[in-house]
Design goal:
Number of helices: 6
Helix content: 40-55%
Strand content: 5-15%
Largest sheet: 2 strands, antiparallel
Number of strands: 2
Radius of gyration: 16 Å
Order of helices and strands: HHHHEEHH
Distance between the termini: 41 Å
Strand order of the largest sheet: 1-2
Structural class: mainly alpha
């Protein structure tokens, strides 16, 4: 079986993979590539799709503060409506609301997505303590 370092991936895949690793998400480049195709961010040749361009997921300026860029770099968040995200200027990053935090944590624990299971458990425990059963 070929290793990720033996395959030349498109630049958008390399960038997304590096970003995910910087955020502590252990995922292979192959998984990133397949998910970017699945969510219609790139075609099989690694070029951005018209959908990705139209929705602002790929731009000429590639504004790092853009929610579209954040979601493109974090495909885990693509299914969620933009209203669930808030730009925190002090931190210079996007944050998700409690609905997304709960749902992503459950998806990680269910094994539907790759992520830090201990962190996901901690998030769900915190939400349970804060709001009783509201976030169950």
């Amino acid at each position: 079986m070929m290793q990720d370092d033996q395959i030349i991936y498109p630049e958008l895949v390399e960038q997304s993979h590096a970003y995910l690793l910087s955020r502590g998400v252990a995922v292979s480049k192959d998984v990133v590539y397949r998910n970017m195709i699945k969510f219609h961010l790139i075609d099989q040749n690694g070029q951005p799709t018209q959908k990705a361009i139209n929705e602002g997921l790929v731009s000429e300026t590639n504004d790092p503060n853009s929610l579209a860029v954040f979601k493109a770099q974090n495909p885990l968040f693509l299914p969620y409506d933009d209203r669930h995200f808030i730009w925190v200027a002090e931190l210079q990053e996007w944050t998700a609301d409690l609905y997304v935090a709960k749902d992503v944590s459950k998806r990680i624990l269910d094994g539907r997505v790759v992520g830090d299971k201990e962190h996901a458990k901690a998030v769900l425990n915190y939400l349970k303590k804060q709001g009783g059963g509201r976030y169950e």
